[in-house]
Design goal:
Layout lengths: L5 H28 L19 H25 L12
Helix pairs in contact: 1-2
Length: 89
Amino acid sequence: MSQLTTADEIALYLGGGLVLLGTVGVGLLEMIAGSPHPVSGEGQIVHEALVPLHIRSYIILLGLAIWGAYAVYKVVATTPETGQTRRTL
């Protein structure tokens, strides 16, 4: 099982890429852009994100959904090896 199929590559690159983009990519963009986090009068931090939080969440969820669909595909499309051999007398 060392060879990657097309479905393996799609799940690996697209799903993983979206999860990394949503976590690391957008996080680095927020840090580089210097999004302010001012404190209100009550001491609550007001988060002003450069990329809205729901967009960031949808990017991560889409990557996880691709991984989930790939897992279902692997369970349905592959047959497990039984490992049984027939003995001849």
